[in-house]
Specification:
The longest helix has 25 residues. With 125 residues, the chain is mainly α. 21% of the residues are buried. The protein has a domain of 78 residues. The chain has a two-stranded antiparallel ribbon. Helix 2 packs antiparallel against helix 3. It contains five helices and two strands, in the order ββααααα. The chain is 61% helix and 3% strand.
């Protein structure tokens, strides 16, 4: 699994959105979310500025921290596991619905994803 990591999302009159600019890899689970948010932010930036260079700079400034936080999710999920570790993980997931503190366990497990997904407050353009 790979990620797209670019120094800049744009050059000249061209800018990239979604997987073309910052594909976080399927391991992050955030590809579609990043693409939709990126398209929204780019459209808003272009609508707010008559100059494409200023719009692209605004888009980059808004999206870069959000993209990096979401890309980091993939490296958390990329650990190589032994067959036994994989089996243990599957058994734990099967047992989860029957555990007394399952809600707290799920909330803790989902915390990194929730934080990354909510790391950007969308503006109204």
């Amino acid at each position: 699994m790979t990620q797209i990591r670019m120094d800049s999302f744009s050059e000249g009159r061209i800018t990239l959105v979604g997987d073309a600019g910052y594909g976080p890899s399927p391991l992050s689970g955030q590809g579609t979310s990043l693409a939709l948010v990126g398209a929204y932010v780019l459209a808003g930036s272009l609508a707010s500025s008559p100059d494409h260079r200023a719009a692209f700079a605004s888009y980059e400034k808004e999206m870069r921290p959000f993209v990096l936080k979401n890309q980091a999710l993939a490296s958390m999920n990329q650990k190589k596991q032994t067959r036994f570790a994989q089996w243990k993980q599957i058994q734990s997931m099967r047992a989860l619905p029957y555990l007394p503190f399952r809600d707290r366990i799920m909330k803790a497990a989902m915390r990194p994803l929730t934080e990354a997904a909510n790391a950007l407050v969308l503006k109204e353009y």
